[in-house]
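Consider the following assembly input.
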Amino acid sequence: MLIKLTGGTVYDPASGVDGQQQDIYIQDGRIVDAPKDGRPVDQEYDLHGKVVMSGAIDMHTHIGGGKGNIARTLLPEDHRADPVHRTHLTRSGTGHAMPSSFVAGYRYAEMGYTACFEPAVLPINARQAHMEMGDTPIVDKGGYVMLGSDDFLLRMLTAKKDQKAINDYVAWTLNAAKGIGIKVVNAGGINAFKFNQRKLDLDEKNSHYDVTPRQILQTLARAVKELGVTHPLHVHGCNLGVPGNVDTTLNTIQGVEGLPMHLTHIQFHSYGTEGDFKFSSGAAQIAEAINNNKNITADVGQILFGQTVTASGDNMRQHANHRFASPNKWVCMDIECDAGCGVVPFKYKDQNFVNALQWAIGLEIFLLVEDPWRIFLTTDHPNGAPFTSYPHLIRLLMDRSFRNDMLATIHPEAQKMTTLASIEREYTLNEIAIMTRAGAARIIGLKDRGALAPGNFADITVYTENADRQAMFAKPDYVFKDGELVVKDGEVVKVTWGTTHIVKPDYDLSIERELKPYFDKYLTMKLGNFKISDDEISEDGRGSLTTHPLHIGV
Amino acid sequence: MTEITEVPSPFCGIGTDDLTIRVDGVTLQVAANGCAVNTPAFEQPLTDSTPRIAGQAASLEAAVTKAAQLLRDTRQPVIGGCATDVNGMRALLALADKTGAVVDNINFNAARRNLLAMQDSGWMNTTLAEVKNRCDLLLIIGTDPEVFAPRFFEHFMWNEQAMFLESTDQRDVIYLGKTPAGKAPVSPSGKTPTVLACDDADLPDVVAVLSALIRNQPLQLETVGNIAVSALQKIADRLRQARYGVVLWSAGKLTFEHAELTVQAICNIVKDINMQGTRCSGLPLGGKEGDYTANQVCGWTTGYPARVNFAKGYPEYDPFLFDSQAMIANGEADALVWVQAYNSMATPPRTDLPTIVVGRSGMQLEHEPDVFIPVGTPGIDHAGHVYRMDSVVALRLKKLRDSGLPSTAEVLNAIEQAL
């Protein structure tokens, strides 16, 4: 079937198209050139006056894995307030902070998103992450596999194994757990917490291993680069949420010595210690460092006010922050000599000085980082706010007077501690398209996604131009996933199943000669049973794997 | 005859995956690393493989059609048992969503003791590999892990080497409540566990006193449940001195009223020790026959653990109201689907309601149901996934033989399609 999208105003930064009126043709799931043979169009959509972008991509959202299910189980009251009815097309479920997997897929699609990436896949829990993502309809998915607090890596580093051996282990793990990138959470800190260390600075040694977080970050960043994995090492830094952590973050940027590195939810890592409350914004310094270091990318992890739940691999910091739990209940886990997790419900309040300033710090970072290709729109769902708040966040970025109106309502002392009122920048539609589409596809390493040129998969979102950007982005007119109309007027009209994006870097098989006895001696599963097979993703008849190219020597 | 190695077990809850199984046609024999729980569960002979309608042999298609017919005009069906693998639970939840059914896991009343505590105040828990490599003190409250899983101590306490202990023989084991039934908790060098036994009925008071001691609350009494408070003080001191203490309990064994408060007290002991500058973690025993699998899959599908009602067109969770046994007894249900793919002894509750049983081959039913469909057992007759006791690790179960039996998922999906 040949579909024609006629006359829309297209924002396709990957092709350098910034608001031009263009027709788009779709056939067999892909965008194609205008037919030259006079073939008739089977279906035409008149998009005059509409805004056309590729489907949005959330490059950091907690949609699959054990900590998410702990968060769900912990908060039945949050689900009760947001029941989702079954329809003739869609499954029932529940929403708000940590929605059920089906509801997450529908709501993402209804917001114009066509791909989501789970950033904290513990290798030992990767099956669960894939099973949950396998029950998340419509959107494509993928995961970043967590390393850096696993005892095997720390033993390798202590034993001064060479980079090649580390690379083999990293590549083996990526293949076994089926990820598209590597994530580090509080490098070595989750491990140190098991040895009763309650904090770990960038250059502080693990009390058992002769290893610092800086070494872990350097080694893994190098491994990712040398393996040719497109997505840079995805880093949740040390000292999350600690006043003064802006220095740690700046040190982390310098410490990686020019290697590609992605700093995630950087808002939580941009705090100074100035002012009466010893809590201040480090956004200007962080933005300057990002602007000056082209190897660095970041997503913001914006907080928005209201009830949510924080679910993180960083049990060291989550344990330290449990006293802020609201409601007052929380879970921490040590996991399988692999990692850990911590789940703490949070209620961010605009009249709380710290929360109000966190809100302002996130926005400052968005607005002060100059290159939209290197900063990404996230709330670290659900940690800063549920993903359903993205349209509101987009309005804050695109509409200065709205932003300043909101600013005027937050804690007065926080207003004094932010430069937000003086920042004039308003994001353009093209910049929004970069940070939520083209840039995201590029940084994740997605081939043929996030762009509208012929040859790309037809993941397309159509909005009605509206000065109220929140209303505009909340309810697209049409969403096409792989060329099929899945959403009309902000509601699911067809349920499809997206693919799982992975990379498969090569490794020397001899790494299993070291891993097998380690598994037999110390772990609780056989090596052969640990590795996830392809059919585990595809045997339900819905899932599939898409392997993306590596960039060896580029 | 073939021999399959590194076979994972869905039966023992501790995620054993080192079994060697000989397969001769449809006959299985555990050739290595069996135990009193796993060996009979794997070796159980295959008997019936033909579905029945009202006791008469029927084709699978006819049985599925009949099941759909029984469910079609119901107002409050209940799906009990829920003992299957991940794909089985996926299909079960899809069927429940479509029919407006209650989904209620067979072990929910036990799991509820943990869930109520967790949903009220949370916990700090650990997983089996951490226990294996770090635990230097295991405090066992109100249960005997050897009875639950015969190889628990062999696997996780007396393992030859641990990464962070010079010798696993250094570990201390304390039983609070129960007396160990066998020799498994005795260390390789012969060190016996400390045992402070009490009646189950006294366990809440004993745990409360331990909790008060850990919080340094002044206490007037000298004994509780025939246990000297001074002995409990020693436990409190040991928890504070340990490098990585682990407190183990089994919700299924806390069979007294409001046991969730005792679970909460145990979880708070763990939290308090962590707040006092020492690491400590909880370890709830459970996870047999797919009960944690049911809670996990129901968790991501509905947002709630496996006692939900879809009657209103969306999932509602109530850990008490939607007790399927009580609903059947009180006349609140109008049909029963019983799903039990692991244990042919676990039969449905006695009822005159239209009943569909999707059960392990060989299920001995006292009362012939309207429809019986024998299904394969995950990890024997088909591949699948099942969670073990820490709810973190999902095992990839293997298919060991060609029995021709359909999986739970195939049967339930077919019924849903036929509706």
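Chain A has one domain: 53-500. Ask yourself how this observation constrains the way the partners meet.
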